[in-house]
Amino acid sequence: MAEQWFNETLHPEFQAGIRMDRLIHRGSTAFQSVLIFENDLLGRVLVLDEVVQTTERDEFIYHEMLAHVPLMSLSNPREVLIIGGGDGGCLEEVLKHPVDHVTMVELDREVVALCRRHLGNICGQAFDDPRVELRIEDGAKFVAETDRRFDVIIVDSTDPIGPGAVLFSPKFYENCRRCLTPDGILTTQNGVPFIQGEELTVSARAFGALFAHPRFYFAAVPMYMGGAMAFGCASQATDAGLVATSELQRRLDQRGLDLAYYSPTIHGAAFAMPPYLQALTA
Ligand code: SAM
User: Fold this and answer.
1) CATH class belonging to 59-281
2) Residues 103 and 64: beta-carbon distance below 8 Å
């Protein structure tokens, strides 16, 4: 049988291809198209609206950095909000901390159901944890309306096209700020700035206007093509880039975390920016 390839068309200038060794699911929900397939190198791959969201092989890098950098930056985070994150990978990492409650606000019920069914290696049993409250609704609407406050808000969104676009707007970030506890931290995925530099600049401007500590950190996630991925990390009282390595190590030991990418040294180093990225956030 002829080889089948998935070609990601996120960027107009170049395409990345992944061989589809086994098709697991192809369909459409009310919000987006969903493709799940298996590749011999990468394991299972989740694609939404023709854009790779996560793969079994490299999801640990993205999800560990998204979850543990903000959670380790606080001495005692109890209440966490995840916006998006339908695959459950970020949720699984958050639940490794002794938090009281995780509210996950995901737009697409079907994405969650498909990931629970086909991507168990990514979400584990996270959705069954009694600390989890899964709400199926628009994350932007939720932060605009809720009276609740969170120590950490994690935005695990799709790219700023389609239903995820509202999760990159200054108004959304302002509403997130309102929903944070005084030393709370907002963390966002901010694309691959070598290619999506505008995304970083727009978020940096919004964070700079809203937060005392607007910061960005980076990690290379191989299947997000084009170099290091940027993560936003904004807070009124906590500079996540300046927590002492010794304190991070103490918290890591205390919380008994056994991780594959995140470490206290990586945490500090991830905030280092080459001048061309600094210029994009200035
Ligand atoms: N790690 C991924 C990446 O960077 O490509 C993102 C993973 S996660 C699957 C993205 C999730 O955001 C999807 O499940 C999608 O349904 C959800 N989403 C998109 N727009 C949303 C919105 N406005 N409110 C809540 N969830 C949203």
Assistant:
1) alpha beta
2) no
Can you tell me the distance from the alpha carbon of 104 to that of 100, in angstroms, rounded to the nearest whole number?
A: 13
Decide whether any atom of ligand 1 lies within 6 Å of the 144 Cβ: no
Segment 115-132, tens digit of pLDDT = 999 999 999 999 999 999
Distance between CA 263 and CA 241 in Å, rounded? Answer: 13
pLDDT tens per residue, range 94-106: 999 999 999 999 9
CB of residue 83 inside a 6 A radius of ligand 1: yes
pLDDT in tens, 158-170: 888 888 999 999 9
Q: How far is the CA of 106 from the centre of ligand 1 (A)?
A: 7
**Ligand 1 pocket, mutate which of 107, 154, 169 (most atoms under 8 A from CB):** 107
Residue 11 pLDDT > 90: no
Model confidence pLDDT, tens digit, residues 230-242? 999 999 999 999 9
CATH hierarchy code of domain 5-55? 2.30.140.10
Domain boundaries, the chain: 5-55, 59-281
Mean residue pLDDT across the chain: 96
Task: Please give the distance, rounded to the nearest whole angstrom, from the Cα atom of residue 233 to the centre of ligand 1.
Answer: 18
| Cα distance from N-terminal residue to C-terminal residue, the chain | 52
Residues belonging to the active site: 156
Determine if ligand 1 sits within 6 Å of the CB of residue 184.
no
Percent of the chain with pLDDT over 90: 94
CA dihedral of residues 59, 192, 112, 260 (deg, nearest 10) = 20
What backbone torsions phi and psi does residue 2 show, to the nearest 5 degrees?
A: -65, 145
Instruction: Measure 115 CA to ligand 1 centroid, in angstroms.
Output: 12
